[in-house]
Amino acid sequence: MNLRRWLFVGLLLLVSSSCKNKEHLVAAPKFAKLEATPNPLVFGDVGAGLTRLMRVRISNTGDLAVDLKIPSIEASDPEIFWLPAQEYPSRLDLGEDAEITVAFSPKADGATSAALHLLDLEGAKLVTVRLEGNGGGPYLAFDPPSLDFGRQPARSETRRSVSLENVSNPTGIVLLDYEIDGENADAFSVTPVGLPSEIGLEDLQLEIVFHSIREGEMSANLVVHTSSPEQPVLRLPLHGEGMPPVNCQVTIDPAEVRFGIVDSEVLSQRDIRLVNKGASGCPLWGLQFQGPDKSLFSLADQPPDNFVIAPSESLVLTVGLKAPGRDGAVQAGLSFGLGNGDTPRREVLLYAQLVAGLDPYLDPITLEFEPTPIDRLTVGMAAVRLRRSGTVNMVGAGWGNPTSEAFDFGRSSNYDGVIRADRPYAIPVIFEPKTLGLHTGTVEFLIEGFAEPLRMTIVGHGIAPCGDGPCQWPKAECSPDGEVVAGRQTAVVSTNAGAETCQWSVAVGDRTSRMSDTDPSSCQASFVPWIVGDYLLDHMIVGESGRGHRCRIPVHADPPKGIWIEARDQAEWFTPLLTLLHSDGGDPDDRDSWINYSQTCSAQGMFLQDCSWDDTQGDPSGVFATNMYGVTLMGIRDPSVSHPYFVGMSGHGTPLEPRALRSRIYCAGRLVNDEDVNFKNGTEFQVIGKLEMTSATTCQFTRDDARWSLDF
């Protein structure tokens, strides 16, 4: 043992204990905080009588979500700075941001200013944005006012766009000519545009190319010539830096992509993973498809030019293929550069066999949900169908990676997985957003005989919650009807508003819970908690339009008032055998006197069928018992107060691999025994103890030590 290490740990524990005795830890207070970018919002020069629109981004950088009032502008003249019609943010969650558009309409020449305020619902000012503008001045301006290409690999090309804006929107101004001048003019060029080009209400877009022809910094200017008498020449500063050579150590997986046989009508996607194994960042540049069928392929999320893959990090490129009506083999390549321009370009070959109208097919190809409030849900159906006669076997359905946690599968019907032309495979998909904004994912259907799954894209948008105001989504409120007791069927009372039908519901909790199908006309349900403990009651109502709501409430199942015994095997593959002996029914020392009640009720799948504490299947002794998947239950509804009961259990184990079975005994509504019963001598029968009802409401449990080790 490392003595120094243990001494050091002991000192830390001593210091920690001392500090705890002297200090009280207080949680740091949480604050609401908004930040605006840019601030101030500078409109620049705008001609009198004209209008310029600009946007400011508001970000929640505090510790709390914020509910907002409609923004307001404080100005001497409300017609100079004003807010055009738009959808204002009513709430910003942590880390969320939104944009607000502000208009500047000067009436005369000269500088002016105002303030944009954002307040919470209590009227507290959270952020103020200063607004500045100048009446009069130039008509034309570059956006951005300069271009910095940053550090780029040597002998590579990088493209950026710039807008030539007609700020004040006078008519008749055109671009006559353009050129690059400066010491490093040979490092920049302009993608040709038609001349002359009007600079009107629509911005004129110009693409500038930086040619990293050497190492080091390079600067030049884009010079444009216009027909404006006030601004015949405008200059845009350009800058870039050529990087020294980079030796990239990047693995590409896979080296080639084979889509297999795919439906040309359906978007098929495959991933290519680039992993940087080197010690320095590696730039990725010049991504492009090439080859005879390059136009059929696309990238789902193309990284920016010269994206740097950090050491030990990876980049996933998702390649898509869709060619409606196309049949036959297709081939292309995804080409890109890594490191500097001296290294050869890499290429991943792409192959596929397209079949138009492939059977089976997806319905729909893309499942799009309507915008859904974050406190409600929407249900859609994802299906696989056949056009032709015959059958196809469905293996299963699952989620592609990545898929938002806002999506979940609903409960499908009891389906054997055989697809026919008149019988599709359909499964409900639930969209229940927890955050605002876009949510995406993929449902994958695995079909027998197909090497690749059929992939359905799913898309949904989370919008602001319903709140207390009007909402077209239903709302469910549910609660158990009366006391929840283990083994007793419990009704769920549900009140709802706006529900056209109540499609289905489910109980989530322990593995032995069960909830019945709901009655669509009443939207009621029932469930049976089979063991004592905590459950989460999950009740969902859905209208015919697919709009729905869940109510989730925790419930606790109490033990019955008589005798209730639970035995568990944690491995779940062995079901314990509980036995019971009434003292007037035989001798506890004689195993043949013990009575096994474990098959009073039957188990089907994971659910107990047709039995409950309130229905002992006509057993004259009033004993309820069943077993399933590692759990055995036994109950005596009306135990005798005149005779004791003995509880026994059978199990098996070895000295090297003993087996522990958990035993819980409840009597008169309270837990009287909770311990592991260990088996290690082959197949054993062990007496757990003796139960005596001294009255209808009192019970005594005695562990029978004399018989504890008896091996009958």
UniProtKB/TrEMBL annotation:
> What's this protein's name?
Putative lipoprotein
Q: What keywords does the record list, in alphabetical order? A: Lipoprotein, Signal
Annotated signal peptide: 1-21
Lipoprotein as UniProt keyword: yes
| Domain of life (superkingdom) | Bacteria
**Lineage in the entry?**
Bacteria, Pseudomonadati, Myxococcota, Myxococcia, Myxococcales
- InterPro entries of this UniProt entry? Hydin-like (IPR033305), Ig-like_fold (IPR013783)
Q: Which organism is it from?
A: Vulgatibacter incomptus
